[in-house]
Amino acid sequence: METESEPYVRLATLRQLHQVVAELNTARSLADTLQTVADGAITGLGYELAAVNLVRPDGDLVVAAVAGSAGAEALMAGRTGSRTSWDRRLSMGERWGDLCFIPHTEGWVLDDDDVPQWHTAGPAPRFPDEWHPMDRLLAPMYTAANGGGELLGVISVDRPRNGRRPGPWGQEALQMYAFQSAIAISNARLRANMQRALVRLEREQQALRASEESFRQAFEYAPSGMAVAEMGGDQHGRLLRTNDALCRLLGRPASGMRRYSFSDLVHPEDIGTLLRTSAEGGRAELRLARRDGTYVWVSLRNSVVADTTDGPRFLLTHVEDIEERKRHELQLAHRASHDSLTGLPNSAELRARLGARLCSRPPGSMADAYASSGVIHTDPRDAHGFRPDGKEPFDGLDGFEGGLPAPFDHHVHLVAPADGPADDGSKGLAVLFCDLDGFKSINDRFGHNTGDAVLIEVARRLTSGVRDGDTVARLGGDEFVVLADGLGTADAEDLAVRLRNAIIPPIRVEGRAVRVGASFGIGWASCGMTAEEVLESADQRMYVEKRSRSKANRRAAG
């Protein structure tokens, strides 16, 4: 830069500086802007060599542009200096405002660091302000004026054309140019980001249009049923769109399907399953109603989709026909829980049904005593359900966790009727243990086919002799068990007599008549007992009854 004492030279330099600053804002890309910054230091500020070092995302600085020397550009462009080395440089030397001048007397310690640099040999200075080839002048570029904000990069310049160190005017011009360059670089980055965002947005819109078309085709032509339903609001769950496969599965037209939701079509027994199914990723297996009134087993799989960004959300449901699989599963479950010969519940199923009615609390426990006391109905409370003394209604009762008594677990406790000749009118769950008399001789004499036929007929007669809600099960061999709820002592004895009389008549098998008898033992299911204990009790009573009948028969024969 020329001598600052000449006003007309300052004006010419200012015009050049104004021109190069204007060119900074006309560059079309970030790379063009960086090169324009380097070129402007040559053409507008009077230096023979300039390099722009740009801060990378990892903090290091890379030489992004070089001007003034092809050799320097080949050596330095694209090379990187660590942030540590740059921070060291910017903290050395003399501070000229925001500028950092490192004279050759101090800069020799930087010759071996990792910052890319280019220096030419030359004679020693002849006067104090003469530029030395090893002098370094750095102009940091910050996002805010006066060294404020974030460091964007550093402009390094070398070899002023007048051979002198810049004076106050030259220093001010370089500092102002660095700040304007920082603004231009920030704007170029913003434009580049906006351009990338626009390109990305256009690609996303194209992908969205393609995705919507792909979804439409996948939805319409999917081999399994699919439906889109409203999510939230007064019309939550209402079907908005169904594909052909779902309409064919349910035998309903698409126009008619839009009047329903899945809750309108689900089997009454499966409504709880549907309501418990979560919207996102929820799965359920349930039955849906066809137009002809029949039901079909389906698997529902839900997912939530949004119409647009922050727009309304919809429920996408995939409906798969699992009728055949469910029928096969039910058949397997029936085989696992039922006797293959008679079709009656087997031993495992009998124990499961009996165990479901029992609990571990024996009769007469604190829970049953409280349940029958009626305290909850006599507890004084105000209109909001609180006692005047501030206590909870169950405070002070032992055996209830948190004060809440066991009677509210929705379990009906089983209590055996009083044991004795007198019937006190109480009811319970009677367990009738049946053992066939004379079956072994039939099996040995006529073979297993005849024995199987007898067992099948006995099972039929037992089933015909009980109520619809009672259970007739085969334990194995010639042993059967009947579960009959709501019976008193006399009722259970009458039932045993009727079933015995139903078994006694001859059974015709392959043209011959065979006859079997039956011994019944009556036990009672009671909470506090296990299923095994209940069955063992009935079994023991059956053997007592069998022995007593044998003695009676022997006395009658004698």
Automatic annotation (TrEMBL):
Gene (name only): cdgB
UniProt protein name: Diguanylate cyclase CdgB
Species of the source: Streptomyces decoyicus
UniProt-recorded Gene Ontology molecular function terms: diguanylate cyclase activity
This protein's record includes keyword Transferase: yes
Keyword Membrane set for record: no
Domain of life, per lineage: Bacteria
Residue ranges constituting the PAC domain according to the UniProt record: 282-334
Domain PAS: 211-293
Residue ranges of every copy of the GGDEF domain listed in the record: 427-558
NCBIfam families found in the cross-reference section: GGDEF, sensory_box
InterPro entries cross-referenced by the UniProt entry: Biofilm_reg_signaling, GAF, GAF-like_dom_sf, GGDEF_dom, Nucleotide_cyclase, PAC, PAS, PAS-assoc_C
Enzyme Commission code: 2.7.7.65
Entry keywords, A to Z: Coiled coil, Nucleotidyltransferase, Transferase
Pfam family membership, one: PAS_9
Sections of the chain in a coiled coil: 187-214
Record-linked PROSITE patterns: GGDEF, PAC, PAS
